[in-house]
Design a protein that fits this description.
It contains 36 helices and 51 strands. By secondary structure, the protein is α+β, with helices and mostly antiparallel strands. The chain starts with a strand and ends in a 6-residue tail after the last strand. α8 packs across α10, α20 runs antiparallel to α21 and α22 runs antiparallel to α23.
Amino acid sequence: MNNRIATWALSGVKQDTWLIHSTLVLPENHVVTALNCRSGLLAVGSQLGLSVYTLILENDLPTWSQKWTVRASAPTCIHFSPSLMYIATLSARSNAIRLYSTTSGRQTQIIPHPRPVINFAWRHSQAASRDDLILYTVTNDSTIRIFLPVLDSPQHLQLHASLDLFSSLPFSVASQHLNQTVSTAFWLDRDIVGNALNHTLKSRPDQDNVRTRRIKEIWEERWDLFLRVLGDGSIVLSAIANIDRRPPTLLKQFTLQHLPPSTLPGPPNHLFVLPNADPCMLTLAVSSPLATFDLSPISFFDAQNDGLKLSSTALPRVPEEESKIVRLVRTTEGAGVGIVRRTGGEAWRVIKKGTQLVRSRPWSSADHVVVLQRGRTVVTYCASSSTLTLHSAPPQILSVPSIDYLFSIPSQDEEDSIVGITSELSIVHLSACHAPSPKLLVRSQCTLPLSSPPKFILPVDPMAWGQRQLWTEPDVLLSVSHTGALDFWALEETLTPPWRRTGSVKTGRGDIRRASCSSAKKTALILHRADGDELTIWNSQESDEQINDLDWTSTPDNQSILAVGFPHRVELLCQQRMTYFDEGPGWTTCTTIEIGGFIPLPIQDSIWLDHGSLLVAAGHQVFLYGPPSSDSDEETLFEYAARHNGPLDDYHPQMILQCLLWEKVELVKEIIFNLSKDIAVNTVAPVHWSSLPTERFFTRDPSTSAALRSKKLTSLFNDLERKQEEPEEGFSRKLVSNLITALETSPLPHLTPNEQAHLLTLIQTTLEIDEQRRALDSNGLRYLISMRSFYILNRRASEPNSSAPLGPQIRSSGRRERLRYRDMIWAFHSESQDLLLTASSAACDGKLGWANARAVGIPIWLTSVDTLKAQMEIIARNEYMAGDNRDPTACSLYYFALGKIKIVHGLWRQAVWHKEQAVMLKFLANDFSEPRWRTAALKNAFALLSKRRFGIEYAAAFFLLGGSLKDAVNVCIKQLDDFQLAMALARVVEQSNEGPVVLDILNTTVIPLAFRNGNRWLASWAFWLLHRRDMAVRILLTPLQDIASSLNIQVSAIGEPHYDDPSLALLFSQLRSKTLQAAKGTSEIPGRVEFNFVLQMARVFCRMGLDLLRSWSFERPSMATIPVAKDMTFPPPSPALSRRSLFDRAARRRSTIVIDMAVLSEPPTRAASPISPDGVSQTIQEEKQQPVQDQGDLFARKVGLGNLMRSAKQDIQVPEFDMSSFQF
């Protein structure tokens, strides 16, 4: 490139890979015109002369050192002689070949020609010595000349033979071609042709006929073969014998055969003979046009028609397609692609499973293009005239507003749907009809229903649209606000405007420069930073290179792959498994496509096509990267993505955790036992891990009550000495201890340090809960699992100077300040809270301070106010005893909340070291039931708050002393950012869970916080305390925006909805029938919402590498009838013959249902209907005559409590949902 030279070498490690061997930089004005490299010698022709370089090793690096340089006319072709003693050069439009000495650079000979020379080559002699010089030249009249040295001057070349048109054909035949296009002549490589002839003779050892004798004669006599292509495509094959013999006067020239016209397309500019996969065949490559032929020597030299067969041909040269590519567009399913160039463009169809492209239709000029009908038709937009043109017969033209984006979307009918985005950010929806007559129509034009204009609107990458099922709906548009909010939109023509928001994400990034969204709602954002571009896909990755392009595709199992285009490479990123142990799913580079090694131009665009093929455009060329051939063992891109997102091993901590949460403790014990057994057997390198049958994961754990009764267990939550007798076999404390020691010494393969730490924690946690789960309900067990894991993991992360090799890696997982709200809510709905409280206190060594109480969420999940008051007194005492100084300010807040001012006064008496002792003793001696002293306490509170003396908690304590609970709560919320402390104080002071301050905290702080963070767990807890238990159930499934719009509570912002937690399904299945209000809320959830929720949970399990959700019961009222015989007599109503309501289903699940709302019943308005003769009441007959239409969601929303209770005599048919039918 200009004055820069790079030499490449074939890699010895990577198959079929070329790597840079060395480089050479010439002076600025030395523009390279010709190169030749052989045996460590490099000849360089430039505009100023000829130079030779030798390869040396300098500091173990290959370096080129200049040997000599001479001034010469800019060479266009350079070749070393076979002996490397001479260099032959040719300049542009020159009639002479110049020879130079390789050692000195001296010009030794000039070989003149009557016409300009267009090509030359050295002949590699076999019979003669290596120093023998034989040169072939070709002039522009297609005459081949052969130069050989004479005996008395072996280094001087002379002309010994020439082959022109008349020497190859009789004069009568040659004269007929004088008026035709000039012919072209070539010499055939003797080594390649000789190898094919040799294999041909060896394959026919017993044949002796004219055909084999001709082949044998050419092979044995070592003839030099020359091929001439005439203007009509006919071929003349000539031979010269005895070139290797001496003296050279014995040269013999003759014509072997003359093939008929049109054997080749015409006289090519270049012709090469190459080896063929069949050693008895040859490959003939010609250009231009570029084509390859299979040449059979046995037939070709016998002048047979099948001697030369066309193997492949390049597309004909189209000058319009040599224009630079601007961008690529595709059809929605990827079966067609449009290449937009600076001048026009063309459409192509993808065939043969994404391995080939076929040209379909060109266009002359357009500002925007849409490709339709799998690449057969295009619609173009002209900005100057604001018109759309459907390229059909006849063309259809439609005037439209000024459009900035134009793309197609899937259509449910035979018409193609097109969407245009105008410069004013309005959406134009059009349709293109192709049969029976072509036409373009405008269906609608509107703006998106947004509160403020977006920053920009983009189309969604459509690669997963072709793989979507009937129950899914594709997103079409992505709108990006100035504040970084992402909104996803689907087209629904029944609405006005016809655009419905399907999701929203608050990114908090207002400087988004580029965005790309996949149809799986995966969004990639590019933000410009001072140190480079930042790419964000849920989590952030930074790049110091400019990112030019983003494009999405989807695997057959709906896993997303992102192509990130840089100037000279494309990186393909695939998503990793979702996990409970990290903040979110990670992304990794699965492969990189480099084009900088064979083309210097930057990448203009890249686009995914059908079957996972990637089309990359650079300059005016496109490169198609497709899957390997079907007979190859190489892993495809889709297989790679599936392997990194497939099912987990049984021992994976994510599998163990989910099994524990779904009450499969016995299954987990079996997994841990198998893991211990495998490690014990394979002590060096475990190669096989035991795996339980898949059916075991879908069956409920067997009852373990008998085992628990027979097993001698110690007390549940105390520190009594354990029994020494442990079972020798099966799951035991000894087995767990040995297993943890082995895993700390030799970590399991394929686990990250964070996963390894969680595995050790969960194994230890399983042992503890197995020994302590006799009196716990399922929710208490889930809380205990999380709480034990929380403390064990934090303790492991804090261990200093761990001697185990895994120690530093475990600490890298980091400490957590508190349990997740999800874990606290399990304890809130548990009926074993006294046991959980004892376990939580024991986990912090019986010293329950406020930090520990907040960490485990005691103010959130402890429902008894009296118990909370007792715990607050324990907290106050432990806070006072925590420090060596015994500071009364540390516990004043808690004692004042309990109303125990005298205790604080007594503590101040002992604080003789405190400088404020005298003042506080005097102040606390007053009667704070009097208004004047309450006012004084409030003034002191404001003073402490402004001066921040003794901590903000002390200011809140004085607010309590002054009787202002509201101000104390505000300090906790606004200054301390601790709503748990505010809730604890309010519940204790008001001695109720329904006091006005408690309700105000829930309404104004907790619920907005839950919406802002998208935390459905916290919001459900708040609604449950507010006795809005219908909302507590609905918020687990319903979109947060819908809930917020129906509330009287001010919700300023809605964060990312946390739908990626399968434990939401557990909580919903428990709460939906726990109380009447909850059942009412369940009935108000549209069936489609619950259906989508269950599908999402199944997808989350699949993303986690698990398959634990196989069935789901949709509890919906239905009006089923019972076939009745005419002669049947009816007894009084009974459960067997009555229609059951929603609550009858709940009764089968629960022994009781809490009545937490008033049930209204209407008085009868008429007498009971008489029983008809056939035994069926008139009412039921009327119901049977009215078919139930598809209004399940509407029915569920309209059913009130009165209707539900009145339907208690109606049977309910609850459909069972089988997730396996969807093949997740």
